[in-house]
Amino acid sequence: MPGKQTAAVAYTVDGLVIAFNKVVVAGFNKKLKKLSSGLMKSIVKKYNVTPSEVANYPFSKFAEGLEEKLGARKYQTLSEAYNMTIMNIEYDKGIVLERTKFERAQAAASLNPLAGLNIQLDQINSFQVRAVDHPIEKAMAFLEAGDTNTYGVCFDGQNLFDTTHSYGNVAGSQSNILTGGGTTLTLIHEDVLTAIGLLQGFTWTSDDNHSRLLNPQVTKIDIICAPLLYPKFLKLKQENNISVSEGNMVKGFINDILVYPFSDGDDYYVIDVSDSEDDLRPVLFQEEKKLEFNTPNLKSESYIEEGLLKYGANYRGGVGYGAWWRAIQVTNT
Q1: pLDDT of 244-258, one tens digit each?
Q2: 127: Cβ–Cβ under 8 A, 6 or more apart, which residues?
Q3: 13-65+82-331: what CATH class?
Q4: Which of 9, 67, 226, 238 has its CA 20 to 30 A from that of 136?
Q5: DSSP reduced 3-state for 226
Q6: If you write DSSP's letter for every residue of 123-191 in order, what string do you get?
Q7: pLDDT band at 114 (very low <50, low <70, confident <90, very high)
Q8: Do 200 and 214 meet the contact criterion of CB atoms below 8 Å apart?
Q9: Would you list the domain boundaries of the chain?
């Protein structure tokens, strides 16, 4: 007997638009998961904030340890003296497709009319990727410009990457900028070890004038680098030795290597990710209104009279600087 043939699905033009929209909405929902992985997970602490023009972030003092009891119990007040605010901004963009493309795909009467819309699917996919990546792009712009005040400063009044940091509202003497020795494998190995030491050594001073570690135990780091440096960091992550005579002391520390096309391909960033994802990160991202993807209304004037399908994406949020002590900028001239 001849094989059973699959019947073609008969679509009206409007039905084809509806089917197309279901596909692109499903694709958008999958892409949203990217916001909680990769670069965002490494450098960004995300907050969902209540509707307001700005959100306030108080950096309180840390709790002190126990002490010998001499008389009545002493209570510490954890003041919220170090504050910074981040403004919420509305971000929006749209893309237009022509209904004639759908009419021609429907008229072709193929087994799968959606196959005639592959170009349009690619266009929507590209638009969605840019929309979902927008917070990541903003965060990476903040990171790369962190040695300037282009996008603001940390709560201590210093640039994200600076030589005069403190855990307070005045300048200090702690630096999270490292002048690198170069980009050979041996020199990168030395600089990453130095960066780990710097991360381990950042401190805050308690009210009783004792120094405490801001990063109690640095056990895992992420590397964020330009594409050309990726192979070298991959060797540091995977290989036991960096040369015949020198062991690789960085191997156990590198958690992930994240690639971004920085304007200076020789610079890179070492991020402490030893603690849980709930802890502070170098960049703060607040989301007042979640990212939405809008499909066209088939009863709209633009669709009926102009033959245009309007898609759009929108969210409201803001980006600011957070924990300077979690990141080291390694610069190579």
Answers
A1: 889 999 999 999 999
A2: 93, 95, 311, 313
A3: alpha beta
A4: 238
A5: coil
A6: HHHHHHHHHHHHHHHHHHHHHHTTTSSTT---TTSS-SS-SSB-SSSS--SB--EEE---SSHHHHHHH
A7: confident
A8: no
A9: 13-65+82-331
